[in-house]
Amino acid sequence: DVKVTQSSRYLVKRTGEKVFLECVQDMDHENMFWYRQDPGLGLRLIYFSYDVKMKEKGDIPEGYSVSREKKERFSLILESASTNQTSMYLCASSLGPGQPQHFGDGTRLSIL
Amino acid sequence: LAKTTQPISMDSYEGQEVNITCSHNNIATNDYITWYQQFPSQGPRFIIQGYKTKVTNEVASLFIPADRKSSTLSLPRVSLSDTAVYYCGRRAGSYQLTFGKGTKLSVIP
């Protein structure tokens, strides 16, 4: 079974800090994704990667960057955290184009 | 701009068939329709996806009319464990998913 592991379930940071959210998948999937989930807004795609060192912007990339140095690991970076980035962050991976996405259990990030 | 709209909540009794309908405003020719299930404190889990007509797997059926402006997820004989949030979405091209705001299904004993 596919396992997508996010490094933290809960994280509290301060405004202005640089924040790293880590995600690892164990199934050699080509594609990895970062979403945020907010009440009443559903899931929104931040960034995705279809290969190592490749990335594409999603619907809401502003204030975020990503890094994929190895196939199994996809990092989301908040360069200077702000309170409006308080949210649930979900990582996902998929085997290839058009394949179902497998999600981790999320990181609930609070920016104070 | 394409938009996906679904009911905020639904209730059903155990053993009943549940149909959740989603509207897909301005769906693009190459978009696939997809549905995910989410339990509290967990990430979404893939249920089913399709392009048109009917798709069936071991847990659900998906009905998509010819104009593809809507889709209906059908869950046969729901149980209490089916209580969850159900998201419809569009897959644009090979990678990008866009989700609706989710339908909270409550199954009542």
Number of domains of chain B: 1
Chain pair with largest interface: A-B, 27 and 22 residues
Roughly how much helix do the residues of chain A carry, as a percent range?
Answer: under 10%
Amino-to-carboxy terminus distance of chain A:
37 Å
CATH homologous superfamily classification of chain A: Immunoglobulins
Give the distance, in angstroms, between the N- and C-terminal Cα atoms of chain B: 40 Å
Number of H- or I-type helical stretches of chain A: 0
| H and E string of chain A | EEEEEEEEEEE
Radius of gyration of chain A: 13 Å
Which CATH class of chain A?
Answer: Mainly Beta
Largest sheet of chain A: 7 strands, mixed
DSSP strand content of chain B: over 45%
Approximate helicity band of chain B: under 10%
CATH topology (level 3) name of chain A: Immunoglobulin-like
Quick description:
Chain A is mainly beta and about 110 residues long. Helices cover about 0% and strands about 55% of the residues of chain A.
Topology, pairings included?
The complex is a heterodimer of chains A (about 110) and B (about 110).
Chain A: E1 4-6, E2 10-13, E3 19-25, E4 31-38, E5 42-49, E6 56-57, E7 64-70, E8 73-78, E9 87-94, E10 102-103, E11 107-111
Parallel strand pairs in A: 2-11
Antiparallel strand pairs in A: 1-3, 3-8, 4-5, 4-9, 5-6, 7-8, 9-10, 9-11
Chain B: E1 3-5, E2 9-13, E3 18-25, E4 32-38, E5 45-50, E6 53-56, E7 61-64, E8 70-75, E9 84-92, E10 96-99, E11 103-108
Parallel strand pairs in B: 2-11
Antiparallel strand pairs in B: 1-3, 3-8, 4-5, 4-9, 6-7, 7-8, 9-10, 9-11
